[in-house]
Design brief:
This protein is α/β, with parallel strands linked by helices and 393 residues long. The protein is built from twelve helices and twelve strands. The protein has an eight-stranded mixed beta sheet. Strands 2-3 form a two-stranded antiparallel ribbon. A two-stranded antiparallel ribbon has the order 9-10. Strand 2 and strand 3 form a beta hairpin. Helix 11 packs parallel to helix 12. The two termini are 35 Å apart. The relative contact order is 0.21.
Length: 393
Amino acid sequence: MKNQMNNAMRFDRRNWMRIASVSAATGMTGNTWLSSLAADTSDHPQRRRSCILLWMPGGPSQTDTFDMKPNHENGGPFKSIPTSVPGIHISEHMPRIAKQMDHMAIIRSMQTHEADHDRAAFYLRTGYKPHGGIQYPSIGSLVAHQFDDPSSAMPGFVSVAAPRLASDSSYGSGYLGPNYSPMLVGNTSNLADFANPDRFTSERLAVPELHIPESIGPEQYAQRLEMLHRLQQPFAEQHPGIGPAAVKIAQERAIRLAASPFTKAFELSGEPESLREEYGMNIFGQSCLLARRLVDKQVPFIELTLGGWDTHIDNFTAVEQLTSILDRGWGTLMRDLEDRGLLDSTLIVWMGEFGRTPRITQANGRDHYPNAWTTVLGGGGIRGGTVHGATSA
């Protein structure tokens, strides 16, 4: 069975009472043994976990992806296909994802009542509705805060090709401070970049200034770092606070990364051409491949983006194109992770800020709909092959 280790460590009521009674008899407080257990399990190499967020800005149509209504007047032209789990059907344009359904859980009962892009994105990405002056951290920053290893050269949160056309505040680290801000890779503001293969080159996902220039020798490089330290030290001493400290930490980590072999994780050219083609030679497909390479290096949180889901007009043309790109990237990612024994320790979350209206508009589109829509979980040791919640026929 999957996750035998995790299952063995789950506490039922009987185990809880047994441990509590032993603790009471030995004078050992619950806080002591629980803290020790948490510390031991979090440090265990088999407990290393990663999360990949597949962020779909604009709000994908649930009715044309994972919650289809075939033969309904507003069901649309797409056919549904069976998946690897009997009784679960999804869009015909996602055959690779359909084969992975035994590792996935579909949640069809999402509801937020937030129909504005900015507010809804902030709510989904932080867990809070925007209000007042509080800057809440994004989910990636929260995960990095809990699971990042400060001694590692790799960042705790990597955001790949995030357009940030809206709700920029929902991408940051908020009150956690800049130490947990994402490392940005391939930042783009052009949604057409996601779909057009002709626009993709390896440089589109390159990390600028990651490598030490060959023209600078080790001795000269060390001298420059020493000079940088001498110039910054007086300012940091005169202006104590989170700003200078955060800059220092970020610089130290960047220096470690530039000098480490981990820089090769960002070099997709090392992958077989056939595998790159399988992921799809577009920004999203290659972002999925990069995510798998970062999971290999135990990065706790990776965020990928496939934009263009705000389909008020000509919904079906756009969704067919987007789901085809999604299917190649996401479906191959799950198979690749499984082949490498990483799928059970990597949770994949697919979501946008809301769904689209069941009714098709006169513009052959679907409008914003936060009342009942879908997100999907995959891998991570979840109970796959399940559907939670339902919408009516």
